[in-house]
Amino acid sequence: MSFAVEAHIDLTALRHNLQRVRQAAPDAKIMAVIKANGYGHGMVQVAKALHEVDAFAVARLHEALALRQSGIENTIAVLEGFQSAADLDQFARHALQPVIHHARQIELLQQTRLSTPLQVWLKIDSGMHRMGVAPENARECWQGLDALGSVAAVRLMTHLASADVRDSKQTEQQLETFQQAIAGIDAETSIANSAGVLGWTHSHSDWVRPGIMLYGVSPFCTGTAADDDLQPVMTLSSRLIAVNHVKRGDAVGYGASWVCPDDMPLGVVACGYGDGYPRHAIAGTPVLLNDACVPVVARVSMDTICVDLRTQPKADIGDPVVLWGKGLPVEEIAAAAGTIPYELLCAVSRRVNLHHQA
Ligand SMILES: *Cc1c(COP(=O)(O)O)cnc(C)c1O
């Protein structure tokens, strides 16, 4: 029987982290962001575990349709909105709320007859310069949407570019730009991502949009989940499938890039970049073997990584290995791989078995 890489998803931890959102933003409604398969945690199971939130957000229409097909009846906002009249028909049919970020989308909405009016979000670019209408056009766009028979309500949204930096000047500037752009408009607003929820109280407004913090990961560029009393939700684990004895001077793995400094035991773990483990993890990146830290050595392969077992001479085939999660923060692995925890969580591949536990 071969080993499978498993991602244990702790739904109790997920719900604990939702409580943290409530504590941090007690007056705001919560739009839980579950795009990209719930940041790799299983979108539908995450939605079911968080059923009492005020809304969900996904990036694309097909994600929202998958939620509806699974019986999720909550309010769902679609962050990229619609691209065609056919999309719009689906929004109306399934009572989905598009985020409108471009004048082209407003034109399309003006030209399309809908069976039921839509509740929409108007996204304003307050300084991130990625998506959203220019602040000086916000009022006109809002009026245009508000006047449409096919629009039942318009809410206002913007997104922060640098809220993960605790004293970022850009965040203050964006908050000011947004307030000026919407002055006098009577509509609900949403600004804060996870970093806004935890670090920028005056960004909370009517709706907060936490993503990463729900999964128990710090949204700050320097910070750990424990600092903010967040609990990791995903624990990625596998097992040793070989223990080999290699000689000082032997080169290990592709490119022979790592050379044994000693006669030593070397462990092979059944997990590689084909499972979502980052190929760029440097030698020395920790894994937990039988609850002890051992370092990754040599290049990460598609199906395996190698670990130095000099401190664990009794380690044997079948011993459990944690790649990240409980006891080994994904923040630490991301830093060792030159990336961010978001990317690692989203990249967990279809080969990995997700196990959801209440
Ligand atoms: C992904 C996303 C979020 C959630 O961000 P986190 O940093 O994961 O909390 C919020 N708003 C928008 C527009 C997003 O795209």
Automatic annotation (TrEMBL):
GO terms for biological process: D-alanine biosynthetic process. The active site is at 35 (proton acceptor), 254 (proton acceptor). Keywords: Isomerase, Pyridoxal phosphate. It catalyses: L-alanine = D-alanine. GO terms for molecular function: alanine racemase activity; pyridoxal phosphate binding. SUPFAM superfamilies: Alanine racemase C-terminal domain-like, PLP-binding barrel. Its EC number is 5.1.1.1. GO terms for cellular component: cytosol. The modification N6-(pyridoxal phosphate)lysine is found at residue 35. Its cofactor is pyridoxal 5'-phosphate. Substrate binds at residues 130, 302. SMART domains: Ala_racemase_C. Pathway: Amino-acid biosynthesis; D-alanine biosynthesis; D-alanine from L-alanine: step 1/1; Cell wall biogenesis; peptidoglycan biosynthesis. Residues 233-357 form the Alanine racemase C-terminal domain. Belongs to the alanine racemase family. HAMAP family: Ala_racemase (MF_01201). Catalyzes the interconversion of L-alanine and D-alanine. May also act on other amino acids. This is Alanine racemase. The lineage of its organism: Bacteria, Pseudomonadati, Pseudomonadota, Gammaproteobacteria, Candidatus Tenderiales. The gene is alr.
